[in-house]
Design a protein that fits this description.
By secondary structure, the protein is an alpha/beta fold. It folds into 2 domains: about 80 residues, GMP Synthetase, Chain A, domain 3 (2-Layer Sandwich); about 250 residues, Rossmann fold, CATH 3.40.50. The chain is about 35% helix and about 20% strand. Strands 8-9-5-10-4-11-12-15 form an 8-stranded mixed β-sheet, with helices on both faces. The chain has a 3-stranded mixed β-sheet with strand order 1-2-3, covered by helices on one side. Helix 3 crosses helix 11. It is globular and about 75 Å long. It starts with 5 loop residues before the first helix and ends in a 5-residue tail after the last helix.
């Protein structure tokens, strides 16, 4: 077999499809660089998100395609550039994702913090907005209770930074333990400030931790900006799922796409056996019922609770644990869903 040429490499790469976008890498403009040196071929693929959930599958298919044209050694490198929708929801921010549950006690804030950090660990630029004004917990979960917000010369609030993400919370403005006895208009104004008067800079993803329920904050958020979508957090049992369904219905009523369902506290591992304390499969069944993606199952583990209390989320404190890997995979699945959405929303040529 003759040695491959650059043109042959590009033709071969037309047979490799992005598993989620279902088009070939060349047509999608994802082939950034090709270098041919004898039978050695190096390619750089520019993915649509650094948190691509199927990166290794793409690499394997690239190697297989290039070996078929005579490449004896194939080097696959990956870059990534998150593709925004046609119009940015806020200046510099490509995607805004709301995390909702419809009720408290299912670990929504824990999920939001770990998803945000997991996306940042993959190489994305990420912000986290704690919109739970009455019960803010992100400052505690990020170990940043003592930090206070500052403003720049333009009187814009400067987000705090922790563990590779930017974040903002009312807990870093008011004294600890002070109750926020506010009515709807003040909540609306505060959320507007957090969205529009904060120097977020350039972000691939802004994760918003919503309060429980389907009230003022949720409605204000839908009015103030365009969300890329919402994620529903539930636990397996029916009592949690009933309220999660209300949160899902809320998103659909305000025309926000539901990106998927994430099941928290799915099972407890004991002596190598999974114990389904809260039942089994409720989140997956809900995703199937409402025809949306199932983003994953997060185990019930002591390390998750301890990480939140200590201000070191489990993806950082216990990175090799099954629960940390579950959060990372859920973050990759979410990023993949956003990539597909952005591609589908591109204007037709």
């Amino acid at each position: 077999m003759s040695l491959p040429t650059e043109a042959q490499v590009l033709e071969a790469l037309k047979t490799v499809h992005d598993p989620e976008l279902h088009k070939d890498l060349v047509s999608l403009g994802m082939v950034e660089k090709v270098a041919v040196e004898g039978a050695k071929v190096a390619v750089k693929i520019n993915l649509t998100t650094p948190a691509c959930p199927l990166k290794e599958q793409i690499a394997q298919e690239v190697r297989q395609a290039l070996r078929q044209i005579g490449a004896s050694e194939v080097e696959v490198q990956f870059g990534a550039q998150v593709r925004p929708p046609h119009n940015l929801p806020l200046p510099g921010i490509k995607h805004i994702v709301a995390i909702a549950s419809g009720k408290g006690g299912v670990g929504k804030s824990t999920v939001a913090a770990n998803l945000a950090i997991a996306l940042a660990q993959e190489g994305a630029s990420v912000g986290l907005l704690d919109a739970d004004i009455y019960g803010p917990s992100q400052a505690q979960m990020l170990g940043a209770q003592a930090l206070r917000l500052r403003v720049d010369e333009q009187k814009r609030m400067l987000p705090l930074e922790r563990y590779g993400i930017k974040f903002i919370s009312i807990a870093n403005i008011v004294p600890p333990g002070q109750a926020m006895v506010w009515r709807g208009p003040i909540l609306h104004g505060t959320l507007k400030q957090f969205l529009q008067e904060v120097a977020w800079g350039e972000l691939d993803y802004l994760i918003i931790d919503l309060p429980p329920g389907t009230g003022d904050v949720q409605l204000s958020l839908a009015q103030l900006t365009r969300l890329s979508g919402g994620v529903i957090v539930t636990t397996p049992q029916d009592v949690a799922r009933i309220d999660a369904e209300r949160a899902l219905d809320m998103f659909r009523r305000v025309q926000v796409e539901v990106l998927g369902v994430l099941e928290n506290m799915s099972y407890y591992e004991q002596n190598g056996q999974r114990v389904y304390i809260f039942g089994q499969g409720g989140g997956r069944r809900m995703a199937e019922q409402y025809q949306t993606a199932f983003l994953g199952e997060i185990p019930l583990a002591l390390s998750v609770r301890e990480g939140g209390d200590a201000g070191v989320p489990v993806v950082l404190g216990h990175p090799d644990s099954p629960e940390a890997e579950a959060f990372r995979q859920a973050a990759r699945n979410l990023a993949g869903r956003l990539s597909v959405q952005s591609y589908l929303m591109l204007p037709m040529a």
